[in-house]
Amino acid sequence: MHALVYTQPNEVCLQDRPYPEIADGEVIIKIEAAGICGSDMHAYHGHDPRRKPGLVLGHEFAGSIVKSLDASLAEGDRVTGNPSIVCGTCDNCVQGRSHLCTQRGMVGMTRPGAFAEFMSIPAASLIKLPADLASDAAALTEPAATALHAINLAQRVMHRPLQEGRVLLIGGGAIGMLGALLLKHYGVDQLAVVELNAMRRQSIADHVGCEVIDTTRQTLAESSYDLVLDCVGAAATRKVAFSAVKAGGVILHVGLQDWASEIDMRKLTLGEITLMGTFTYTLADLRATVKALHRGVFGDLAWVEKRSLADGPAAFSDLHQGKTAAAKVLLKPE
pLDDT tens across 276-334, in order? Predict the structure, then answer.
């Protein structure tokens, strides 16, 4: 089968790979669409020691089952799912927080991923799709669930309803775009997105209809936002987040570009600011997101770019060089 393989920093190549092996309780999926994630780009740049050359990347997927060794799923079932492979028995798994499982593996990291014609995965990780939900939309379940999980966390700690506040999203990538669309659906009308790529700024303006800010040309108002979501997670964006949040506000740290930086602990303390980390999603979040995509909560998704799997090397290069307006590129095996 054809698969897109990470071969060395800044290089992915289309290669012939063996058909996936399958164990009891697993299925093999014919991949119909798979999204390029920011973490895939992180690996592509050689910045993720967990993802080593020779790996098939990709963990945002939708497809149909071609072989099943689990009674809950049959050949022909259309699915998306959780790329994390969890133990199911640790405290976090038992409590419904399997995304925090300390023994988790992941397709596209600890086992071959979705940038291929076929992929194996445990059946327990999968969610059946509504018959009329297109695979291209279903492949957005994973990043959309990340946005949904983060925003739902923020609502638990905000002092006033989300709809009353001023909200700032830093980063107009897929999670930023999907988060902005979800916030608009939730009724947030005081929404701004910081994005430095001019093509993405235009895409956000066209498809979300909110204020878009280029901080290299515009001054961001200080201490003026009730909720700030940092969807980049760089040292520079953390600094922006702390500058922008008002006293009593909430900063939600979503992205993981840089692992460490100095933060304004004096403002955090004197302003009683809540700083929260958020990591991926629960299985309940994924199921809720499939329903939301089916209802059209995220709009027509016209901003998503679709390319063939064979065009994967060019897609990675274009994303690396900022040559595409698309916050999400889907790769589709032919």
Answer: 999 999 999 999 999 999 999 999 999 999 999 999 999 999 999 999 989 999 999 98
Q: DSSP for 88-124, please give it.
A: S-SHHHHTT-GGG-TT-EEBTTTB--SSBSEEEEEGG
Number of other residues whose CB lies within 10 A of the CB of residue 219: 7
**In the chain, what are the domain boundaries?**
2-140+304-332, 144-277
Question: How far is residue 68's CA from residue 206's CA, in Å, rounded to a whole number?
Answer: 42
Q: What is the pTM of this model?
A: 0.94
Task: Provide the 10 A C-beta neighbour count for residue 252.
Answer: 22
Residue labelled with tokens 């790329």: 83
Angle between helices 174-185 and 198-207 (to 10 degrees): 20
Q: Distance (Å, rounded) from C-alpha 145 to C-alpha 85?
A: 17
Q: Please give the CATH number for the structural domain made up of 2-140+304-332.
A: 3.90.180.10
Q: Rounded distance, CA 310 to CA 30, Å?
A: 16
Q: Write the CATH number of the domain with boundaries 144-277.
A: 3.40.50.720
pLDDT tens, residue by residue, 50-89: 999 999 999 999 999 999 999 999 999 999 999 999 988 9
